[in-house]
Design a protein that fits this description.
Elements (H helix, E strand, L loop, with lengths): L7 H10 L1 H21 L4 E8 L6 H11 L2 H11 L6 H4 L3 E6 L3 E8 L2 H23 L5 H27 L6 H26 L10 E2 L14 H25 L7 H8 L3 E8 L12 H9 L16 H18 L5 E7 L3 H14 L14 E7 L15 E6 L5 H13 L4 E10 L30
Parallel strand pairs: 5-9, 6-7, 6-8, 8-9
Antiparallel strand pairs: 1-3, 1-4, 2-3
Length: about 475
């Protein structure tokens, strides 16, 4: 899995074998989303539209939208709300403005109730219009309009007086007259430029001031994220994180699967691969207690990252595999009379395979063997964290039985080192694989699949028996 490409079949395998765990994590994520919705009260958003008459470029509309959310506008809106606990800085996160088609600036305000959201958006729109009008130089004061008309009349009268003075001066006969006419022309030019600027600043010019297009509509629904959205988002996020977590765990998995890798880690050769029919897992010492029951309930006690076991042949075919392993073992260690079969603790498949192998070796002599006999096999369990193998006695070596995809190279190297410490040479490795039970054995065939009782009463922790 660590080197394989993630495929849809991998996702499907996770969903089939971990659906209980995924369902529990999805519910937990939904509860977390619900808790977040309780901590954060619902929010409502209302929008008010402000029309900008005239011709406006896109960048000018964006500038007006930024002005609507500036501190100058928000501070005035906060003061108009009349709430001491609300400042312009707090409104910055609750007010937004955007420019839309048709020279319209949409001002949106968010609050905890529909009424407050409506009032906030209306106040911000009004303050924006007042501030935009002020900075543009526009006004609706009648006295200001009268003063501007009077100023225009005064400028026109002054312009006529300048023309009369220029005509009255002696045209070009003296230096003083030339200087006077030049000064008068400069004054005329300055007055004309002033009149142009005054016309451009006229509120009745090309661009009229912004106008609020009625009060904001009172919102009828919550602003996102709503409670339903938070619950669904929490559930979906938990589900995706659980699936990604499974994939990451499989990616970094360093357990050996290939037979050459297992043989290299143990420093020996693979004598063969045997099949173990699948059966309901027995509850050992680690299968009791609340934790074990919870793992069984969630389905995490069975690995998901292995393909479904293939369907095996009949019992006779499986026994042939064990006999061939015994034949290779006899060829590998022809002088051995007794061998120690080492099985890592917790490897149920390997333990059952070792039992079948010991039973086959202890059965009647097979004509396929070299001398018609196979070494006597004694099965011992070895704890993987701190492996200890019985000291060498009458055994002439050790045979290691493991299942593929169960142990890492470091763990198998530790088992091999424990065998060397006990004076046992690893003469071979047998890889066990679980298969679906095939057809029932033929009637009258001897029953050889029962595992014999382990010598030394199960796990061997001392010397040889």
């Amino acid at each position: 899995m660590s080197d394989d490409t993630i495929r849809l079949v991998t996702i499907g395998r996770i969903l089939r074998r971990r659906w209980r765990l995924l369902a529990v994590l999805t519910v937990v994520g939904a509860l977390v989303g619900y808790g977040a919705s309780v901590l954060f009260p619902p929010r409502y958003t209302a929008s008010a539209s402000v029309l900008l008459p005239g011709q406006w470029e896109e960048r000018e509309l964006l500038t007006q939208a930024q002005i609507a959310t500036s501190s100058a506008v928000l501070d005035r809106a906060a003061a108009a709300l009349g709430r001491p606990d609300v400042s312009g800085g707090e409104l910055r996160d609750r007010v937004s403005a955007d420019a839309s088609d048709g020279n319209i600036i949409r001002v949106s305000g968010t609050a905890t109730t529909p009424e407050r959201a409506q009032r906030l958006s209306d106040l911000v729109a009004q303050q924006f219009v007042a501030f935009a009008t002020r900075i543009a130089g526009g006004t609706t004061d009648p006295e200001a309009v009268t003063g501007q008309e009077t100023l225009r009349k005064k400028v026109a009268e002054t312009n006529r007086r300048i023309t009369e003075l220029a005509d009255a001066a002696d045209p070009g006969r003296t230096v003083e007259s030339v200087q006077a006419r030049t000064t008068l022309e400069k004054l005329r030019t300055s007055l004309e430029e002033s009149m142009k600027k005054l016309d451009q600043a006229d509120p009745a010019g090309e661009k009229a001031g912004p106008v609020v297009m009625g009060p904001a509509a009172r919102p009828t629904g919550e602003a996102p994220p709503t409670r339903v959205q938070l619950v669904l988002s929490g559930a979906l996020l938990s589900f995706l994180l659980a699936v990604v977590g499974h994939l990451v765990a499989a990616r970094v998995n360093r357990r050996l699967r290939a037979e050459p890798e297992i043989a290299t880690a143990l420093g020996s050769v693979v004598l063969g691969t045997v099949d173990v029919p699948g059966e309901r897992r027995a509850r050992g010492p680690d299968g009791r207690g609340p934790g074990a029951r919870l793992r069984r309930l969630l389905g995490v006690d069975v690995r998901w990252d292995v393909p479904p076991p293939p369907r095996s042949g009949d019992e006779a075919g499986r026994r042939i595999r064990y006999r061939r392993v015994c034949a290779r073992l006899r060829d590998q260690a022809p002088a051995a009379r007794r061998l120690l079969v080492v099985v890592p603790d917790g490897d149920e498949i390997a333990r059952r395979a070792a039992g079948h192998l010991a039973a086959e070796a202890g059965s009647a002599p097979s004509p396929t063997l070299a001398n018609g006999a196979c070494p006597v096999l004694r099965v011992v369990g070895v704890p993987v964290p701190r492996p200890v193998v019985p000291d060498r006695g009458t055994e002439s070596g050790a045979l290691v039985v493991v299942s593929a995809g169960r142990w890492t190279a470091e763990e198998l190297a530790g088992v091999a080192g424990a065998c060397a410490d006990g004076g046992h040479e690893v003469v071979g490795v047998v890889v066990a694989g679980q298969v679906e039970a095939g057809p029932a054995r033929a009637a009258g065939s001897p029953r050889q699949d029962a595992a014999p009782a382990l010598a030394a009463g199960g796990r061997a922790t001392g010397g040889p028996s």
